[in-house]
User: Which sequence fits this backbone?
């Protein structure tokens, strides 16, 4: 029952500042598709005729974006797949409104070339560094499972951010680093490594999602459509101008162009509507998270993923 | 210079205050310090309290100052309770209690209003420390600090001046000077004075009446009618000193 | 008796009042309970955490880390405070550097800490130690510097020097100030621990808090907030008790 | 003259020595320069940050937040410290609650702060304010409680009460201790800001530090570390200068 | 009881110390406190220093104690420099300097070894405060505190006892008692004593020699050969007191 629209002071206040002033608050993380959208100026242009202006809010990570949505501090945002699962498990109201195209090569499980480890089977009992609950964590679990190793048969080292993982990996404090782009690409380029999951996706599409808060989705479905369309448009442009995007993202993140190029080359930008296939993949992920104990209860992701 | 008699002064000085202590008891926890003490101090009188260390002299002064409540008994000023009578009393302590964060002149001016600076300067001059007025108290010697404290007490022209061994840190000469100064000011301003001292000589020099406290009670209460200004060489004073010392020794 | 009771009750008016108002807000859904769960929900989760032994499991680890970090960092801060309070050279030599390090946020230090101390216990204890070091250092320094010079002079006159002078005069004279530092350090200790316990661990109250935040479990977040508050109060009570023991002579404690 | 020079140099031996050793390590690649860049690399990045105006852009914002937070939090802490130092009731009523709140880590408070204050400036300033409040509170309280009772008695005797008593005796008497609190608060201020500046912002030194950390820009991380150290030192110098002005009378300052 | 003469004591007391101050200058910044001061103190002698407040008496004592360095000039003990001669000197101050965190008995025992407790108890008994031994100093009256400080100075059986107005806070009776006590202990233990006081009477009662300091120099240096035990009523003492007071007044 997420249809009821709460009538608290907070909400009406938000309405005054938000919708009635015709401001749309967009949450983004550095270097992701909404950031590219912001740089392109496409959204502002499209909204101008409708009398809306855009307020851009930068967040340091996806969970913060989701938190901003849940507390109705922003209307629309973009974050990873895990963030949506946690929000739902935490009974936080949220709506999935779209997904990026799959990017299975954007995650991987790395070992040092001179480590003697050559396949996933070798990882039994090893120290694997991950950000707990991240897409690469999920991938590593799937990979281990396929190799017949249970998640309990390795030593998970939960790290705080990608940089920590990289530092721990480089100084051999951990044996294995599961990572995601552009940090995956960065590690691959800077160090002599083997990506043990290269070329396999274990049925995991690694999509990221577009989320809105409940109210915004209910009151302004047309704006949601419009934002997704604008994003798709800027994505199309990005696909056609990858060298330019590389420059742009490299500058935004302060990461070498070579690394960003590698990350961007292996993905395709574009927005999908939510469909059954996407829901199924997300449901499987949620179930594994439950089994891993990352979320306290089973959830039905379809509740948060309306198809229209 | 003609010195006005006590009676004369009492009439032309409305400011001074008459004090009555009735059946005062004072204990700290289990320790009884004052026991059923009765004392009457006339308006404008100069009363000196002597007694051994720990006999309760400071406690008595603090009771009169209203800084402590008696355990039982009653203290009145001009027949009013301490709180009702808005008397202006000032006190000097064994330690100077100069505020270290104020210069000498600002210490003396503490609590004054209006032309405080002139008043403070004038009083500092009286105690011979005018030239130190802009120094920090911590740069003065102990004796100098105590003189500043005296200036601070006198600048208020109090109707009751309470003095808790204020001169014990002063040197012999300054001490005599200060005794004379206190006496002079007391004669001119006509406040009631209550002085605690260890120096029996000082007591007989200054007092209209000398009170000895022993075991929490008054064991000696002598009038001193020797004409002022008094001289240490006066035989009557010497006799009085001897009498008091003998009484103290006796116990 | 009656008055004593009242004195015992007064400090708890605000905390208990807050909980009551919170329950009121939650019951009336003035704020969505999905954002801030009701006290009762929190209580239920708390009960489960306790019963499953999970809470104790995390607390045990955190307490161990906190204590070791406090001992090491507090010890170093204390020694530096003494040294810099006594030796002008030592003060000149180290104080500027210490004041500089003091201002570096733990979070920013993280990469260096991992390089130096790895990702195991060493790193966590180091962070706690460096966090508690400064309040102890500053207050010990302040305490030593503010001892009446007359006492030290007197002590030397009576043949005290070195350890004896320290034990008889410097330490007790600085103690009131050191206790202020200690009470402050105990607060810092818990705050640092939450950061420290984000490094490669799966045990500790900080880990509990961080994962709760990551996984948006607002009941667990609130439990950890309350846990920290209680930890803080308990640590403070212990410090106060120690203070009362050690400062029996102090004017605030003589009855 | 010569001795004065030496005294000026001594405090910088450790900081400069550290930089030299670090350059040595980097030049010899004892640790990967990707993890810890060489001082020279850092210097170059720093130069670019300054020249592009980016650094100033971030610093301006952080300074504004820091200052407003300090004023609000410091003000409240000061007032509470005074109130609780003077009124036993106020102390009983609020101290326990304050000690409890004090121990809640900023990080754990984050979700609640966002609910209460949103994600804009209010939230960031609130975090800074609550961070600096406690050192000021505790040290003001300590300062007030430790004023020689004789001074207060004397002041009352001379007709001081209320504001006058406060201004002439309580405040100056507590000032040395309050300055200790202030210096401590200035440290906390920066540390809190790094956490506060992770909330939905794209401006501020904390933001710079957090993104640098996330995207492994180790040169920027080091620049922010150094910035914090310098901020800390500068804040400390200002506080010391104020201290010297305000405490001219104090035995440590009379020459 | 036969009182040994100074000469006798000097021979059977090897412990006492002879002090020589030669051309001592002492300044604080621009302020000259002592100027070209010369003084010889015999081994076992009791020298009393008097002078106005701020005249530099405490400074002189601190120089002798080695707590301050003279700006120029030389101080020797038994012809050795201060540092070489390992004399055991103790000092009593204007303020008691009792450590507030130690009980009375522990304050007295400060710096003692071995059977410190018995010694401390015995000495506390001498100053009449045995029954206060387990109290905190802050619970004593000012006078009581000062008596504890005296016990602390005496318990060390010093070869040089420096006393900086130690009795100014004591009451008349205790003061006389203490004067007698100090004299008795000095006679028995034979240490050299250097006492600063504001009380000229006290000076003439205790001193072998009285020294007046004015403007940073010694302006009066009188031997006092009156037989001990001395009585205040002694005419010679009274004359001496008068002479010193007149000299002080004169300037
Ligand atoms: N606040 C207090 N609490 C407990 N005992 C006290 C307190 N004030 C004074 N006393 C005790 O009361 C007694 C009398 O103290 P008081 O200071 O009045 O003596 P005094 O005659 O002034 O002595 P002195 O001449 O040494 O100053 C002492 O034994 C002292 O220990
Ligand atoms: N450390 C110091 N710095 C600066 N001036 C000082 C210092 N110590 C003493 N003086 C000054 O030296 C002079 C003599 O001080 P000293 O304490 O020796 O006087 P005193 O004769 O003992 O006075 P009193 O009888 O009041 O104790 C005073 O004017 C004092 O201000
Ligand atoms: Mg007294
Ligand atoms: Mg002196």
Assistant:
């Amino acid at each position: 029952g997420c249809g009821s629209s709460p009538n608290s002071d907070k909400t009406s206040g938000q309405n005054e500042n938000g919708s009635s002033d015709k401001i749309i608050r967009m949450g983004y993380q550095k270097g992701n598709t909404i950031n590219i959208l912001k740089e392109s100026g496409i959204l502002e242009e499209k909204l101008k005729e409708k009398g809306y202006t855009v307020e851009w809010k930068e967040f340091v990570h996806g969970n913060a974006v989701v938190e901003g949505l849940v507390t109705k501090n922003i209307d629309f945002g973009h974050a990873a797949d895990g963030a949506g699962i946690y929000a739902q498990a935490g009974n936080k109201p949220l709506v999935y409104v779209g997904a990026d195209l799959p990017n299975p090569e954007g995650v991987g499980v790395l070992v040092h070339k001179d480590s003697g480890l050559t396949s996933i089977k070798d990882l039994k009992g090893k120290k694997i560094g991950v950000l707990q609950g991240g897409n690469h964590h999920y991938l590593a679990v799937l990979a281990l499972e396929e190799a017949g190793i249970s998640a309990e048969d390795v030593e998970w080292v939960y790290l705080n951010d990608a940089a920590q993982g990289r530092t721990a990996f480089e100084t051999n404090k951990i044996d294995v680093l599961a990572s995601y782009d552009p940090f995956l690409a960065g590690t691959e380029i800077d160090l002599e490594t083997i990506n043990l999951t290269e070329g396999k996706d274990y049925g995991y599409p690694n999509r990221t999602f577009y989320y809105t808060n409940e109210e915004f989705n209910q009151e302004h479905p047309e704006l949601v459509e419009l934002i997704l369309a604008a994003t798709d448009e800027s994505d199309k442009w990005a696909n056609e101008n990858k060298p330019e995007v590389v420059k742009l993202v490299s500058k935004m993140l302060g990461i070498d162009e070579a690394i960003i190029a590698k990350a961007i080359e292996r993905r395709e930008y574009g927005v999908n509507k939510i469909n059954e296939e996407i829901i199924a993949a997300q449901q499987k992920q949620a179930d594994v998270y439950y089994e891993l104990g990352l979320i306290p209860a089973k959830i039905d992701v379809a509740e948060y993923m309306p198809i229209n | 210079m003609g010195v006005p008699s006590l009676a004369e002064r009492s009439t032309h000085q409305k400011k001074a205050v008459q004090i009555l202590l009735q059946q005062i008891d004072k204990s700290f926890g289990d320790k009884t310090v004052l026991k059923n003490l009765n004392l009457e101090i006339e308006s404008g009188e100069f009363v000196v309290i002597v007694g051994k260390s720990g006999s309760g002299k400071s406690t008595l002064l603090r009771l009169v100052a209203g800084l402590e409540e008696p355990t039982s008994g009653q203290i009145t000023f001009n027949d009013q309770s301490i709180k009702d009578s808005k008397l202006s009393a000032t006190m000097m302590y064994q330690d100077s209690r100069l505020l270290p964060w104020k210069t000498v002149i600002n210490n003396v001016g503490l609590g004054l209003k209006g032309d405080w600076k002139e008043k403070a300067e004038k009083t500092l001059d009286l105690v011979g420390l005018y030239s130190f007025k802009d120094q920090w108290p911590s740069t003065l010697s102990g004796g100098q600090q105590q003189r500043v404290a005296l200036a601070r007490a006198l600048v208020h022209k109090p109707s009751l001046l309470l003095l808790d061994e204020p001169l014990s840190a002063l040197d012999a000469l300054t001490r005599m000077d200060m005794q004379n100064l206190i006496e002079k000011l007391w004669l001119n301003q006509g406040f009631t004075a209550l002085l605690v001292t260890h120096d029996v000589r000082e007591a007989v020099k200054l007092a209209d009446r000398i009170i000895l406290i022993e075991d929490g009670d008054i064991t000696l209460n002598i009038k001193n009618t020797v004409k002022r200004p008094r001289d240490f060489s006066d035989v009557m004073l010497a006799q009085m000193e001897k009498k008091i010392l003998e009484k103290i020794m006796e116990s | 008796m009656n008055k004593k009771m009242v004195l015992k009750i007064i400090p708890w008016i605000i905390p208990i009042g807050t909980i009551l108002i919170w329950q009121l807000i939650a019951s009336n859904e003035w704020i969505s309970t999905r954002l801030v769960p009701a006290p009762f929900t929190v209580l239920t989760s708390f009960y489960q955490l306790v019963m499953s032994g999970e809470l104790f499991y995390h607390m045990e680890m955190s307490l161990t880390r906190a204590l070791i970090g406090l001992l090491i960092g507090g010890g170093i801060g204390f020694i530096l405070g003494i040294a810099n309070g006594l030796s002008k050279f030592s003060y000149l030599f180290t104080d500027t550097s210490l004041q500089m390090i003091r201002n570096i946020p733990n979070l920013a230090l993280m990469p260096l800490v991992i390089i130096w101390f790895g990702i195991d216990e060493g790193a966590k204890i180091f962070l706690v130690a460096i966090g508690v070091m400064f309040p102890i250092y500053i207050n010990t320094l302040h305490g030593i510097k503010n001892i009446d010079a007359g006492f030290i002079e007197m002590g030397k006159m009576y043949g005290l020097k070195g350890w004896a002078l320290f034990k008889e005069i410097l330490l007790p004279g600085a103690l009131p100030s050191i206790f202020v530092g200690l009470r402050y350090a105990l607060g810092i200790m818990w705050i640092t621990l939450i950061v420290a316990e984000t490094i490669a661990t799966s045990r500790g109250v900080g880990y509990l808090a961080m994962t709760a935040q990551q996984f948006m479990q607002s009941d667990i977040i609130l439990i950890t907030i309350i846990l920290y508050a209680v930890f803080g109060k308990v640590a403070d009570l212990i410090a106060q008790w120690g203070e009362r023991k050690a400062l029996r002579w102090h004017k605030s404690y003589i009855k």
